[in-house]
Amino acid sequence: MIKKIIQLILVATTCVMFEAFIAHTVATTGFEITLTQEKIYERLEGFKLVGHVTETFFADEFECGLRCLTTEGCLSCNIFSDGKCQLSNLTWQSSPNNLKGTVSSTYYGKDIRGWFSSRPAISCKHIVDAEDSKGKGEYWIDPENDGNPLKVLCDISDDGCKCLMIMTMNLR
Question: Could you name the domain of life of the organism this protein comes from (predicted)?
Fold first, then answer.
């Protein structure tokens, strides 16, 4: 039941956030930031991600989002109606049991490609280019973009990235 509710909320509230966000933040705070690409964040009003909070402070919505965007390892943030901001090193997709309903907060999480079969990347290079890499490891890609993602091993290093398909066989 909660999964269906979350899916409906995601459809209704997924947003591209940071083009206007950066312009507003530079204008109001004087901070200057350079992004190589647009970042997509999911917005879930009435939810918060509990656990794995790496930092808590008071700020407005834009300052909280900017801090997450510029903090190494920040993948999501909770913004509360009293101005409290919590940065987290997880997203709700990586920890769905930790997503809790609440009337006083809004959850923002990065739309990370390749970590889950439900959000595959096109290739290992796509993961690197999107800055969604967690280093060498297993990822999900859908090179044909046909809805049939493959689990692969991406060897991501300073020399570039290589891809090795992981095969699963069911023997009877």
Answer: Eukaryota
Q: Which residue has the tokens 């809790």?
A: 100
Could you tell me the CA-to-CA distances from 153 to 22, 82, 88, 146, 147 in Å, in that order? 34, 43, 26, 20, 19
Give the total number of structural domains in the chain. 3
pLDDT band of 7, cuts 50, 70, 90: very low
Domain of residue 74, residue span: 42-109
pLDDT one-digit tens code per residue, 116-132? 887 888 888 888 887 77
Could you report the per-residue pLDDT of 77-109, keeping only the tens digit for each? 999 999 999 999 888 877 889 999 999 999 999
118 and 162 fall within a common domain: yes
Counting Cα atoms < 13 Å in the Cβ hemisphere of 78 gives 29
28: Cβ contacts below 8 Å, ≥ 6 apart: 62
CATH number of the domain at 100, please. Answer: 3.50.4.10
The reported pTM is: 0.60
